[in-house]
What we know:
CATH topology of the largest domain: Fumarase C, Chain A, domain 2
Low-confidence stretches: none
Shape: elongated
Number of domains: 3
CATH architecture of the largest domain: Up-down Bundle
Strand content: under 5%
Helix content: 55-70%
Number of strands: 6
Mean pLDDT: 95
Number of helices: 19
Amino acid sequence: MxxxxxxMWSGRFREPLNKAFEQWQRxxxxxxxxxxxxxxxxxAHAKTIAAAGILTDAEVADxxxxxxxxxxxxxxxxxxxxxxxxxxIHHFVELDLKERIGTVALKLHTGRSRNEQIATDLRLYVRxxxxxxxxxxxxxxxxxxxxxxxxxxxxxxxxxxxxxxxxVLIAHWLMAxxxxxxxxxxxxxxxxxxxxFCPLGSGPIAGATLKLDRWIAAxxxxxxxxxxxxxxxxxxxxxxxxxxxxxxxxxxHLSRFAEEITLHATAEFGFIDLPEAFSTGSSAMPQKKNxxxxxxxxxxxxxxxxxxxTFATILKGLPLAYNKDMQxxxxxxxxxxxxLDGMLPLLAPFxxxxxxxxxxxxxxxxxxxxxxxxxxxxxxxxxxxxxxxHEMVGHxxxxxxxSGRELNDLTVDELQQFGKxxxxxxxxxxxxxxxxxxxxxxxxxxxxxxxESLAMxxxxxxxxxxxxxxxxxxxxxxxxx
Length: 481
């Protein structure tokens, strides 16, 4: 049989494809990654059409056996995936299955279209990727929490405009990234819920021409429901777009974390010792220890942003329903998944390996007039309007700058030239501990507030892990076979 006759659409055509075009338009060189999902969806479809009387018990058993054999060979790297014949993963599976079980394999395509197949395969692929990303994010959040606990009551400067602003507990700074990870987790979960609908049975555009029970495939694959509109089902890539946008947000958060770690590990800051297991050296300068992990995280976040832009650009002008343009969203999806799968598993062990130079950080937390806000608050409690207190402390800071001293070093007599409200209790009110503890509000860096925050974070994390495990068990139980 000729190569043209092996096409899934060959009957209508007389002329062979231009060879250059044929190779250029193929998606199999990259969508072979979808083989596990294609096999799972094909098994679900086989059971659906068997229930509709299209396949005998013996035929469905042969098809399932052949698909399982194919999946096993893929998993054990026993498949040759360099063939130039298959157009796409669907074509490859059909040809391979025919080699394994004979012409009964050709019955499998009854009642379905490649349009719904790719929509289903990609949903399964993205859903699997989300589950891995969730696990890795929770692992990173756990590392952040454990590291925060280990820092105790040690303090550091915080920054606005990259200028020292106020003193905070190191734990408070770390937990800012914990909160980002929690939001990213919720975004992934929300995206997963919205995408967990099964397109099988949608046909190429108007729905299957056979009377299929679409719940069979939906349950088999762990989807919550069949999709509600066939035109939308085959043309929808919102799930991949949203996944890429969530991934881009995750990348932004990881990039911010990476940027701060990179800065804090410089000799100029000197706050962090980079773990050697995640650093490299220079081929020319023997003394160097370079922050390769954090720099690569910063760089790879750009790939995620780029993929999200790619999705939006491809999809923005497409009429209903399926268009070949959508093939271009596959590589962007694979790029997002590969980038997340590469980065996220490294974050938890890297974070756990970080070591802080507490003495250097606390020294920095006590210089640069980081207690100025606490000083103004002291005056507010003396009855001074905040705007006036702000100005009084500003004058005191200027006086300290001119004389090369911190607020702690100024005498009460010197301070009283800016206001008689400065009293003998002023210096006690602007110690490092007092400066931290004056931020005594929910979400503030006061010592006891941070301790409560850490305890609450632990409870939240445990609840999320239990919920995630429970949802996956329920989904697996809900699935048939």
